[in-house]
């Protein structure tokens, strides 16, 4: 077994010691003194609405005994010594509550509820609802959390124009997202690539529907299905260890989190400016508590979104070429592609929860979430190919090629999770357990790529005065390459691909209260097992035309045109109609279309992966006055069994054969962690954390596959010997909460990563393939990442008159990183943007809420090249959005959202900014509608 451990002796010793202390706590006289102590329980609510207040701080004045309320507003304080005390309850935006309680032999268990009144400044300014209510809940949960985290409440989600979960997260300090088709997709936390972060639903990891990576595209899950999102930046031992940047938890709704019936419905529509087509959305949420004691909860929520979207895209390939005199042109423009995208995205999400309260402190539940995401895409491409000709100079090319292509595909992704479990409070301990089944799938059953070649080679002159929009002229005559009658059919590529990912998970946690001197403390330990089965089946065929007559692109032209592609910088051929192309394929695939399997992609991309993870942990939390200490260790054991294929092509480039390859392995990781929180004032926390984490290699990199081309002396290899990337993380955070609703926080972080993984291109040394150019993900050396973040959120309730409706939401994160990879020093980590920022100005008064928001991230390394001149960067991105809503009467609300008002592009470049490799524009889109809340 491969073992990766930080301070291995102390880590192992820590586990032994914590378990020994657990036993001692249960058996020793000090622990038995708990029988001569009392327990204080209760519920904290809003005095005017009766709503539960999660994250309320409940303390017994003059002692270190206290706690925080859960999502149902409940608290419990164990081992309270006998005597008369003052119980104090505080919550952001509310007046402090206090009550005298007496714990004695005759009343060892007492109940003290607290109904909190809004603070005077809130009452004077505005009735707290919507955005402010969401802020108070989120900030209160952050304030009382034992570790560093950010919480986004469902009310806050509604106030930004964010339709999917990834876009919600881009507003959080230190978080940025990658985009696809103008929508947020993958999440990056504190400058770490998506692979280094964990996505969970109700605490369970989400399986990935994609075949190559572990990270989950959160554009699959609609934001309106969630009650909150938590971004944990310093994990604790009771959380999954596969988190280096952070852990993102999507929490679904439960009826027991509300005092009564919940009924929300929304309907909306919109407009996409680029395509001139509609956007449609609708959602319904219903929840209620039943039974004489209201101890049975049912919550159901569903939503549907259809977005007709598109993009204008041009892509350039730069690389070394020799001119006709054998003089190297280091960065010649090799290809220019104009890509016109038209796609329809349907997002359907359902979630539901059944809860049953057995008695106070004990419940059982069943919950689930189902999300389906369909992306139907038409991509029309015109490709100018100087690389196929002869370079007289860098801009004068003879006999270049030109081709056109249609790609039409239906990609369906599905994620669902079903779980059952329970929480039970016994006299001296608390037990919770959970069994879940998760499944993810990506299917492309209809996917064709049809290519047509121009019937003449072209002598061309390139105009590179504007490298974002390179131009050309040819000797073929004006508009020759835009006439579909000049393009002849070359072939069709057909795909039928399926990836599935299944997780079966079981977990339990046991928590035992005890006292340490005069301090309140608890021990917690538990275990978890995850059995994963992941399969990817690729089935890709290539068809060529064997008919007697030439097939011209003009036979497939449809009615779609784009006369303003990239603001009129380029014309395009008339678009190929996808229905005509599919009909041609279906009619001829068993006749004049002669096909063969693309073995490199089909056999090389097909694999099976079995991966089991067993984990156990122990941790203790101790309170000494205003100081909280949390320490413990987690041990994770990973067992893998991967099956891939070796695909060999002979010296003539012909397919030789496929062989099945298998690899079994296991590795182990000890993960010690320590957290400190000091409450300097009732509203000020200082936090310090030392944590460790891992990030397992992506699935595709662990597969023992080999693609060997003897003709070109090239290989592409998997690497089953890879071990997880590991990290040691140091965090410091200071945070001050404003009673007028808000927070000012700042902190610094440092991460040291070992066994980083990167894609390498090298010449094989030794063995039968000595000298072959080889592409493989390999284990690198250590890397460091450090930075700081600041965050300011505040409702300006102290301002006079109408001004007290304004609010500020602003955060900024700076990161820098350095790695030694492939003989190169001081290389930044992929995904690490130097600057990430959000700025929003909101206004809320008289039932109106409006917000203007800006989101920004700086450029970052996306793909590591052979040297810094060939590194590919994701360029910086700044986007402006507007959202507004107005409450009318009887629970009716009108809303409006306008997104990407500045037409922010997606842009990549190689080496330096004046060598773009991709530019994609989406224009703006707007949608609005009505919501009804009962």
- Under CATH, the topology can be stated as Maltoporin, Chain A
Number of domains: 1
Q: What is the strand content?
A: over 45%
CATH A-level architecture: Beta Barrel
Average predicted local confidence, pLDDT: 89
Structure commentary:
The chain has one domain (251-933): TonB-dependent receptor, beta-barrel domain (Maltoporin, Chain A), CATH 2.40.170. It is built from nine helices and 52 strands. The two termini are 58 Å apart.
Layout: helices, strands, pairs:
Elements: E1 2-5, H1 8-27, H2 29-32, E2 38-46, E3 57-60, E4 66-68, E5 74-80, E6 83-90, E7 97-103, E8 109-111, E9 114-116, H3 120-125, H4 131-144, E10 149-153, H5 154-159, H6 165-169, E11 175-180, E12 183-189, E13 197-201, E14 204-205, E15 226-232, E16 246-252, E17 262-272, E18 277-290, E19 296-322, E20 328-359, E21 362-385, E22 390-391, E23 396-425, E24 430-454, E25 458-463, E26 471-474, E27 487-516, E28 519-537, E29 540-545, H7 578-588, E30 593-597, H8 599-605, E31 607-624, E32 627-649, E33 655-681, E34 684-695, H9 699-702, E35 706-709, E36 714-717, E37 725-738, E38 742-754, E39 757-763, E40 773-779, E41 783-795, E42 806-821, E43 824-827, E44 835-845, E45 848-857, E46 860-863, E47 872-874, E48 877-887, E49 892-899, E50 906-910, E51 916-921, E52 925-933
């Amino acid at each position: 077994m491969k073992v990766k451990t930080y301070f291995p002796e102390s880590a192992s010793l820590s586990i032994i010691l914590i378990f020994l202390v657990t036993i001692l706590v249960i058996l020793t006289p000090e622990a038995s003194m708990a029988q001569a102590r009392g327990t204080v329980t209760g519920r904290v609510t809003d005095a005017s609405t009766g709503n539960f207040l999660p994250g309320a701080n409940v303390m017994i004045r003059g002692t270190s005994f206290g706690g925080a309320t859960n999502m149902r507003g409940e608290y419990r304080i164990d081992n309270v010594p006998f005597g008369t005390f003052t119980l104090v309850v505080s919550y952001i935006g509310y007046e402090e509550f206090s009550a005298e309680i007496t714990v004695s032999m005759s009343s060892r268990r007492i109940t003290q509820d607290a109904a909190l009144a809004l603070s005077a400044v809130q009452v004077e300014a505005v009735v707290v609802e919507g955005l402010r209510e969401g802020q108070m809940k989120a900030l209160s949960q952050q304030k009382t959390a034992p570790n560093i985290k950010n919480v986004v409440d469902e009310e806050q989600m509604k106030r930004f124009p964010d339709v999917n979960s990834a876009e919600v997260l881009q507003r959080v300090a230190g978080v940025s997202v990658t985009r696809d088709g103008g929508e947020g997709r993958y999440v990056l936390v504190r400058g770490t690539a998506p692979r280094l972060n964990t996505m969970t639903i109700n605490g369970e990891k989400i399986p990935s529907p994609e075949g190559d990576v572990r990270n989950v595209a959160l554009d699959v899950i609609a934001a309106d299905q969630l009650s909150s999102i938590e971004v944990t930046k310093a994990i604790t031992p009771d959380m999954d260890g596969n988190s280096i940047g952070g852990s993102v938890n999507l929490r679904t709704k439960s009826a027991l989190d509300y005092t009564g019936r919940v009924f929300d419905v929304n309907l909306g529509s919109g407009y996409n400016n680029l395509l001139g087509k509609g956007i449609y959305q609708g959602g319904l949420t219903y929840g209620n508590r039943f039974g004489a004691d209201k101890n049975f909860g049912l919550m159901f929520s569903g939503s549907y979104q259809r977005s007709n979207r598109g993009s204008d895209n041009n892509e350039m390939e730069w690389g070394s070429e020799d001119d006709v005199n054998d003089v190297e042109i280091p960065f010649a423009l090799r290809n220019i592609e104009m890509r016109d995208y038209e796609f329809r995205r349907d997002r359907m999400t359902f979630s539901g929860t059944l809860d049953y309260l057995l008695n106070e402190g004990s419940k059982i539940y069943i919950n689930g979430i189902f999300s389906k995401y369909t992306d139907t895409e038409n991509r029309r491409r015109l490709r100018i190919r100087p690389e196929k000709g002869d370079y007289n100079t860098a801009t004068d090319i003879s006999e270049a090629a030109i081709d056109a292509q249609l790609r039409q595909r239906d990609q369906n992704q599905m994620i669902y999770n079903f779980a059952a479990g329970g929480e039970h409070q016994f006299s001296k301990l608390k037990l919770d357990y959970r069994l879940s089944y998760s499944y993810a799938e990506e299917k492309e059953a209809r996917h064709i790529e049809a290519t047509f070649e121009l019937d003449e080679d072209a002598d061309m002159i390139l105009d590179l005065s504007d490298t974002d929009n390179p131009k050309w002229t040819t000797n073929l005559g004006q508009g020759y390459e835009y006439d579909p009658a000049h393009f002849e059919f070359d072939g069709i590529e057909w795909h039928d691909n399926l990836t599935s990912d299944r997780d079966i998970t079981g977990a339990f946690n046991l928590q035992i209260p005890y006292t340490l001197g005069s301090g309140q403390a608890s021990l917690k330990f538990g275990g978890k097992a995850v059995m994963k089965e992941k399969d990817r089946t690729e089935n890709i065929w290539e068809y060529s035309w064997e008919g007697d007559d030439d097939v011209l692109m003009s036979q497939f032209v449809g009615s779609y045109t784009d006369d303003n592609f990239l603001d009129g910088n380029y014309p395009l051929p008339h678009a190929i109609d996808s229905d005509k192309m599919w009909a041609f394929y279906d009619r001829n695939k068993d006749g004049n279309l002669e096909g063969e399997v693309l073995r490199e992609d089909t056999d090389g991309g097909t694999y099976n992966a079995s991966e089991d993870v067993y984990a156990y942990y122990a941790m203790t939390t101790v309170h000494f006055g205003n100081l909280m200490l949390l320490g413990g260790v987690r041990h994770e054991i990973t067992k893998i069994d991967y099956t891939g294929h070796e695909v060999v092509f002979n010296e003539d480039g012909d397919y030789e054969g496929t062989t099945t390859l298998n690899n079994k392995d296991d590795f182990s990781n000890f993960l010690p962690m320590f957290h400190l929180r000091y409450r300097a004032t009732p509203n000020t926390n200082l936090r310090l954390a030392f944590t460790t984490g891992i990030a397992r290699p992506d699935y595709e990199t662990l597969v023992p596959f080999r693609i060997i081309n003897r003709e070109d002396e090239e290989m592409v290899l998997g690497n089953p010997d890879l071990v997880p990337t590991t990290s040691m993380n140091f965090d410091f955070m200071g945070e001050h909460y404003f009673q007028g609703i808000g927070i000012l926080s700042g902190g610094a972080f440092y991460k040291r990563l070992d066994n980083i993984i990167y894609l390498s291109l090298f010449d094989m040394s030794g063995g039968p393939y000595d000298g072959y150019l080889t592409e493989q993900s390999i284990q690198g050396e250590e890397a460091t990442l450090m930075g700081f973040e600041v965050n300011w959120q505040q409702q300006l309730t102290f301002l006079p008159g109408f001004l007290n409706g304004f609010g500020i939401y602003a955060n900024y994160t700076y990161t820098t990183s350095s790695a030694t990879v492939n003989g190169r020093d001081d290389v930044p980590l992929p995904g690490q943007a130097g600057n990430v920022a959000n700025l929003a100005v909101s206004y809320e008064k008289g039932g109106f809420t409006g917000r203007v928001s800006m989101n920004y991230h700086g450029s970052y390394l996306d793909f590591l090249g052979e040297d810094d001149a060939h590194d590919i960067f994701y360029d910086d991105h700044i986007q402006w959005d507007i959202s507004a809503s107005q409450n009318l009467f009887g629970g009716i609300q009108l809303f409006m959202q306008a997104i990407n008002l500045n037409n922010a592009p997606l842009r990549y470049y190689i080496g330096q900014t004046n060598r773009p490799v991709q530019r994609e524009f989406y224009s703006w889109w707007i949608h609005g509608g009505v919501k009804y809340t009962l």
